[in-house]
Specification:
The chain is an alpha+beta fold. It has a single domain, classed as Sufe protein. Chain: A, CATH 3.90.1010. It contains four helices and four strands; from the N terminus they run H-E-E-E-H-H-H-E. A four-stranded mixed beta sheet has the order 3-2-1-4. The longest helix is centred in the N-terminal third of the chain and has 16 residues. It is globular. The N and C termini lie far apart (33 Å). Zinc ion binds next to helix 2. The site of zinc ion has 8 residues, from helix 2.
């Protein structure tokens, strides 16, 4: 278990140091800003759609390691998924993060996003991990309001 936890932490640190898809998308057709006032994390999310499918996802912004790594891994996970598939994935991700620590966690279908399972031990950080996903929901709706985790 401690080896696994080490691996999870290494993955989060790696994505924080070298965030993937960390750039604006000039030809994005969806865009939204997200803010987690609890921690001060801010990000902007860009989506390029092909019909109902996410062709490209990228982000910019500044936040803590968990919010940056989460946005980085989310943009990787979104590529090629439909909006519905992305929502199902978020639902699973959110359930994992809100499962009480003493209960077994269901990581089915989460793939690499499983590395955030340790965040549930720190409820205050859950919003750091979900900020990118809240912002995704706002971007899909395409309203120009800022996504808030509150
Ligand atoms: Zn944070």
């Amino acid at each position: 278990m401690s080896d696994l936890r080490e691996l999870y932490q290494q993955t989060i640190i790696d994505h924080n140091r070298k965030p993937r898809n960390f750039h604006p998308l000039p030809d994005a057709d969806h865009h939204a800003k997200g803010h987690n006032p609890l921690c001060g994390d801010r990000l902007e999310l860009y989506l390029k759609m092909d019909g109902n499918r996410i062709k490209e996802a990228s982000f910019t912004g500044a936040g803590c390691a968990i919010s940056t790594a989460s946005a980085s891994m989310m943009t990787e996970a979104l590529r090629g998924r439909t909006i519905e598939e992305a929502r199902v994935l978020y639902d699973k991700f959110h359930k994992m993060l809100t499962t009480p620590v003493h209960e077994p966690v269901n990581i089915d279908g989460l793939d690499k996003l499983e590395v955030f399972s340790g965040v549930r031990e720190f409820p205050v950080r859950v919003k750091c991990a979900t900020l990118a996903w809240h912002t995704l929901e706002t971007a899909i709706k395409d309203d120009q309001h800022e996504a808030k985790t509150e």
